[in-house]
Amino acid sequence: MRIRDLLAAESIELNGSAAGKQDVLNKMVDLMAKSGKIRDVETYRKGVFAREEEGTTGIGEGIAIPHCKSDAVKAPGLAAMVVKDGVEFDALDGAPVNLLFLIAAPNTEDNVHLEVLSKLSVLLMDENFTNGLKNAKTVDEFLKVIDDAESAKDEDEKEDETGAKYKVLAVTGCPTGIAHTYMAAESLEKHAAEMGITIKVETRGSGGAKHVLTDEEIAGATAIIVAADTKVPMDRFDGKKVIECKVADGINKAEQLLNRAVAGDAPVYHAAEGSRKEEKAEGGSTAHMIYTHLMSGVSHMLPFVIGGGIMTAIAFLIDTLMGYGATGGSAFGSCTPLSAFFKYAGGLAMGLMVPVLAGYIAYSIADRPGLAVGFTGGLLASSGNALVTGYNWADSTTGFQKFIADFAFQGANGGNTVSGFLGGILAGFLAGFIVLFLKKVFSKLPASLDGIKPTLIYPLLGILIISILMCFIFNPLIGLINTGLSNGLTAISDAGYITVLGLLLGAMMAIDMGGPINKAAYVFGTGVLATASQMLEKGAQPGDPAVQACYIAMAAIMVGGMVPPIGIALACQFFPKKFTKEEREAGPTNFIMGLAFITERGSKVSNFVMGASFITEGAIPFAAADPLHVIPCTLIGAGVAGFLSALFKCTLMAPHGGIFVFATVGHPLLYILAWAVGSVITAVLLGLIKKDVK
Hints:
Layout: H1 3-6, E1 7-13, H2 21-33, H3 41-54, E2 58-60, E3 63-64, E4 67-70, E5 77-87, E6 97-106, H4 112-123, H5 127-134, H6 139-159, E7 168-173, H7 180-195, E8 199-205, E9 208-210, H8 215-220, E10 223-228, E11 242-245, H9 247-252, H10 254-263, H11 286-321, H12 337-351, H13 353-366, H14 369-383, H15 399-408, H16 420-441, H17 453-495, H18 498-508, H19 516-537, H20 545-574, H21 581-586, H22 589-595, H23 604-609, H24 620-625, H25 627-647, H26 668-689
Parallel strand pairs: 1-5, 3-6, 4-6, 7-8, 7-10, 10-11
Antiparallel strand pairs: 2-3, 5-6, 8-9
């Protein structure tokens, strides 16, 4: 595949004009639409603007490469525009932009087009090439400039198969892996050639790592430049001088970086330190950093919760179908060989939920050395202190031992010292900062001892400290909180306030649809499911009010997430004047999304692929286009659905699945009614308050 295969003649404008950045982006999207490679133009347009909000794609020297990888793209494509008078674009160098290429990349695993796109990015670093494009009189001449340059580049790459040693090595990478990755590589290579420096650049783009650095090359290099805004494997650079910087510096400060590398003006990287860039984003806050670390743990935890939770729900379903729903007692879910298997495997997966959560929170804070300490803290949180209550000293009746025994182990009976989900979150943060503290304390050790830090010092001292803190302070304290939570859920259920909880949880799922509030509600649901599991293990019955309250809460959460897409789909059908043509065409897709508890934006293809999932991000295109009208409607509808679900005492034992776990729902017909009422309310409200599209 060549650049010409991606760039249609009808998507080239040589005499463009624009009033500003927004105007030129809209015109570029319209040009791309002419290629026929976009299935949903407005969704693609929103994606282009969303990418631009993350950081300007105006790379300097009068060039901009906006791009978007989206399910709205049918096939990879390019659009080009020359704006001879220039347009303000918030470029990195502050100069106006007069040459733009728009990239459309489909959201597929087939990334062969990325090689072509990377080649274009590289060619744009050649001034003669860009001047030829800017001065082209016809579209054919414009395309010929590209063809000639691409052919010459292909020949150069064929000749560059030498096994030469490189003085400087580099790695480039950006979050999207489309443009900046390769432009930084080209800038470094270009300036290195001018300076007579041998260099090899590893690019880590969406298509994977290319030109990967070998151990031999690393060993022989003077220094390594890592110009990346994404995580790069760093352990291989242990003991080498490494310059770490932003990918933009690789583009704009290549000469400066190369001079530093040749001069050896760089710190020695020690893999044992697990160091990595932790540059605080401009405008970032402590709260945002905490949320980022927490979401790192949650994202790694979710596969265990989803897989294990659904398998456990299947075990409950099997026992229910076999007639053990009312007679199984504490053995419910394992009354038959088949259900026992599902519960055993699902329980093991669910049992890893809290350790994985804590481990990857710690990893986000302290990198790899945080994993062992975080996993241990999470395991202590989920296991509690009860296992050691049989030790003789724990039953001491005098002095300090008695105080410790009574507090940490709550007497001979062990009490509730399982801190669970809340304890896992705390353990993760504690573990991360414990490791950071240990790194600082032992930073002055001789370099000869660096190797023992990650294998001996950090895990030994970190596990010791986290064990003391969890066993003797936080497990007992949070265990008491969990006991209070269980008692509170029982009280709420007994007092009839469970409906209020259902209303709040349902509404939270529809406020930001995939954002922090939505995720907070879902995380609460997984937490109460874990609480229910712990209560059952201690002898509670499935029908006990506290256990039922946990399942009622989870049911309200899922129905709240299912309402927005269905409500919007209904509104598109019954109130077409309120939506654009593109929204009306995409609206019915939401029926599929709603059935599967998906609110993910994107194409029809992705919606069907994700049809059995439980993700809540999908009414986003509609909400983003008109938040003041759409969000209140989805919020009210989802809140009512959550309220009714709780009122009907509908229960859900699975943390995920949409209609695919309806068989495990208690009172399924009433649950469907709650869902339908909430969806209709959303649709009607949208029809009443949303303005007609002009």
